[in-house]
Write a structure and sequence with these properties.
mainly alpha
Length: 95
């Protein structure tokens, strides 16, 4: 499937991207190639395969939480632009 310039501009608008002509042409080609690969995949016969099947027997691998010592406060705050009582001082984000 070959995408049109308008298709690329619509996707760019949805993604809030401002593209120049060269980028539009490049993305038109790249996105068209991606869609072509998906069209090839859609031809694979998956009739006997359950939608959620996995090729491997998967399970969560959990590790134990371990405590560790932290860096000294003075070292953490060394490059802070503004400090207040051994803490980072930042502008309020909500009023």
């Amino acid at each position: 499937m070959q995408l049109s310039k308008e298709d690329v501009l619509r996707v760019a608008k949805l993604a809030r991207l401002d593209l120049d002509e060269q980028e539009i042409e490049r993305f038109q080609s790249q996105l068209s190639n991606i869609l072509h690969h998906f069209s090839v995949l859609s031809e694979v016969d998956t009739a006997g395969i359950a939608p959620t099947s996995q090729p491997f027997d998967t399970k969560n691998i959990m590790r134990k939480d371990l405590t560790a010592s932290s860096l000294p406060t003075a070292q953490i705050l060394l490059n802070a632009p503004d400090l207040q009582d051994d803490s980072f001082k930042v502008k309020a984000v909500m009023e």
